[in-house]
Amino acid sequence: MNLTIRLFTPDNANELSKMIFLVIEQLEKENPTLNYQLVRDEDQPKELIKAAEKGKMWVAFENNIIVGTLSLEDKRLRRFFVHPNYQRQGIGRKLINIVIQHIKKNYIMEIWRW
């Protein structure tokens, strides 16, 4: 696996939004009674750009294909998604480790999950 993790840039917005929507589609199949419209609204490309301006958002790439993301906004973990075809390969763990490094480096004493 040739995984790289970088900070979000606005040129990632469209592809990242598409990847998140793939994960949402998978979740809807697994949980048909739950409504994911709010997630869809928050993860449109324009909204991703706004969110990245408020905090840090990391994007995982496998050979220049977006395969995961995790953000930290106002001490909250947000947007933790891994592409369905890349799940259970340690990508989520690597994203969490990047956030932990950031937290330690910046002396953030507490975080919340959404």
Specify the CATH architecture: 3-Layer(aba) Sandwich
Multimerization state: single chain
Strands ordered across the widest β-sheet = 1-2-3-4-5
CATH H-level homologous superfamily name = Gcn5-related N-acetyltransferase (GNAT)
Number of domains: 1
Structural class: alpha+beta
CATH class: Alpha Beta
Q: What is the strand tally?
A: 5
CATH topology: Aminopeptidase
Sheet having the most strands: 5 strands, mixed
> In percent, how much strand structure appears in the residues?
25-35%
Average pLDDT rating: 89
Q: Helical element count?
A: 4
Keywords:
5 strands; 114 residues; alpha+beta; Aminopeptidase; globular
In short:
By secondary structure, the chain is of the alpha+beta class. It has helices at residues 13-30, 37-42, 45-54, 91-105; strands spanning 3-7, 56-62, 65-73, 76-82, 112-113.
Chain-wise SSE layout:
Elements: E1 3-7, H1 13-30, H2 37-42, H3 45-54, E2 56-62, E3 65-73, E4 76-82, H4 91-105, E5 112-113
Parallel strand pairs: 4-5
Antiparallel strand pairs: 1-2, 2-3, 3-4
Helix pairs in contact: 1-3
Written account of the structure:
- The mean pLDDT is 89.
- This protein has four helices and five strands, in the order βαααβββαβ.
- It has 114 residues and is of the alpha+beta class.
